[in-house]
Design brief:
CATH topology: Rossmann fold
CATH superfamily: Response regulator
Order of helices and strands: EHEHEHEHEH
Structural class: alpha/beta
Number of strands: 5
Helix content: 40-55%
Number of helices: 5
Largest sheet: 5 strands, parallel
CATH class: Alpha Beta
Number of domains: 1
Strand order of the largest sheet: 2-1-3-4-5
């Protein structure tokens, strides 16, 4: 059975590119912000992993992660964050919120895929 990945990214071209790259290993669902991601989840669609941008309109990655970790339904879903800042403090912030990994843009899609596949074989 194919694993499901929810990709939350507000830039359409990047969302499409990452989604296409990861579709070899996952059924990729997408949302353009955290609010849309919560809508997907509230319909009972539970992904095996979430990849989210850190900065988005409507609901950013930190707020999405907070909602996920404080919920009973989605608290255990692994989350990887795509951030705009190479500063270690932002990566540490997301790790404290419960992220499984942080990738500063520009990032290596191959490394992202490998980290996800290490966690979700």
């Amino acid at each position: 059975m194919t694993k499901r990945l929810l990709l939350v990214e507000d830039h359409e071209d990047l969302r499409r590119t990452i989604g296409c790259f990861l579709s070899e290993h996952f059924t990729v669902l997408s949302a353009k912000n955290g609010l849309e991601a919560m809508s997907v989840l509230s319909k009972g669609i539970i992904p095996d992993v979430i990849v989210t941008d850190s900065t988005m309109p409507e609901m950013d990655g930190a707020t999405l992660l907070h909602h996920l970790r404080s919920s009973g339904w989605w608290a255990d879903i692994p989350v990887f964050v795509l951030g705009a800042n190479e500063d270690a403090s932002e990566a540490q912030h997301f790790e404290r919120l419960g992220a499984h990994g942080y990738f500063a843009k520009p990032f290596s899609p191959v490394q992202l895929k490998e980290k996800i596949l290490d966690l979700i074989p």
